[in-house]
Design brief:
The chain is mostly helical. Helices cover about 60% and strands about 0% of the residues. Helix 1 runs antiparallel to helix 2 and helix 2 crosses helix 3.
């Protein structure tokens, strides 16, 4: 009964896939607990999220990486004060 009440809460069009999946689970196993239903739906949502990630452009999958260039300076061409500032 708890599973059915939980499923009734999924009333928006965006929840149609989840609602269908939950009703199918309850039909296949009328003795399913709310915990089992939750696990089934969570797995479904994880798979759906992963599928969206795989279908999205690469720029959304990988954060932009900016290289940092280090300018090497000859130590004998700078003053002692500049060297001390470099080693702080």
């Amino acid at each position: 009964m708890k599973c059915l009440v939980w499923t009734c809460g999924l009333h928006t069009p965006d929840d149609a896939d989840i609602r269908t999946r939950a009703l199918r689970k309850m039909e296949d196993n009328p003795q399913a607990t709310l915990k089992e239903l939750n696990l089934e739906i969570q797995q479904f949502l994880n798979i759906r999220r992963d599928a969206k990630l795989l279908g999205s452009p690469p720029s959304l999958l990988q954060p932009e990486v900016n290289a940092v260039a280090i300018k090497k300076t000859c130590m004998w061409k700078i003053t002692l004060g500049e060297r001390l500032l470099l080693h702080r």
